[in-house]
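lol ok so funny story. i was supposed to be doing the assay writeup but got distracted and ended up predicting the structure for this chain instead. priorities right. anyway since i did it might as well share w the group, maybe its usefull for someone
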Amino acid sequence: MTEQNHVTVIGAGIVGVCCALYLQRAGFRVTILDERPPAEGCSFGNAGILSPSACVPIAEPGMLWKVPRYLADPLGPLAIRPGYFLQALPWFLRFLREGRPARIRRNSRAMAALYAGCFDAYAPLLKEAGAEDLIRRSGALLVSKEKGKGEVGGELANALRAAAGIKAEPLGRDELRQLDPALSPEFKGGILFPDIGHSVNSFRLARTLAERVVRNGGTILRRRVTGFAFGANGPSALRTAEGEVPIGALVIAAGAWSRGLAAQLGTELPLEAERGYHVMLPDPGVAPRLPVSYSGRGFYATPMENGLRFAGTAEFAGIDAPPDDRRAKALLRLGKDMYPALNTAGVTEWMGCRPSFPDSLPVIDRSPHFPAVHFAFGHSHWGLMGAAVTGKLIAELVAGKPSSIDLAPYRATRF
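and the output, tada:
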């Protein structure tokens, strides 16, 4: 496994799989390791959104005053378990600093540069895998009960989108009803983003691409990586319960679990497991034609081939804490608020850990200590849309080719 053209990828989620596919396209042999089958982490349960218009960081001015209000609202977009507050505090202090206007604009530009090409980066992978039907260029809505036409979205967010050249069409109450008749008539206004798309089944998408990795000659091993063995030039093998796996070049794309692996290689990073929830309704009784985001509530309603998914919110409780079913039930209540005719029979609940940095940007970089080790994690809410672009960038890094975009904003050393 250690010949020069072989690369090992830790992580069989959508980011790791896309890295593997682009590495194969660049001529490398690839082995993926993950303790779970492909796509059984965040890739299973995300909201399915692909947005070349993603350019609004989570941190914004005034977050210091907004966070307590969010925490006090049982239906709010944010929850922190009391026992985890002190452990999460350093991350939140960094997060608040990222809410300064200059940093917001800088982070927004970096987001726009990374995600603008998401559809183009996916295109060859989907075509080769015969999976082009799994992504739809549907557009998406942002809707509000508090604000009318031309007022939705917030002044700062709308300014960032305008600076990035994002198409956004203000809508009034009647226009919303025409696009989605099942929406509650209490929604006063919204924004249509015509360039956004979505996956009709995020799990099947990632699984199909993983199968393509194997058909291309790659290997996927069910192994939990616990550490590294070192040689003269750095990590020489991965330690697993089944024994050591020799490596040459390495890509760490293990999502929220990447923090511990990077730390073992001498790179401490402020990566948090920002836990998201979804509820899935197999027979919702309503048929949205495009994804809808509820302004101020932090979630999407996404139509998928197996039902309607309400996915989002953020919980900080640590990577191993059990799910809090109240968060899923809050999503269901908000979904019923969006769609009064919603049929909730047969609902299923899910929780997954997003890998999130305070500045809303991932790390896409070589290890500062070991040039054969590469980092590809920390995409937060944007993992699905960033996976293929990241895969392309990682393949360029491993091959020693010029990068398609400037990678400076995504360096591991920026913290």
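The chain has a mean pLDDT of 95. The radius of gyration is 21 Å.
back to the writeup now i swear
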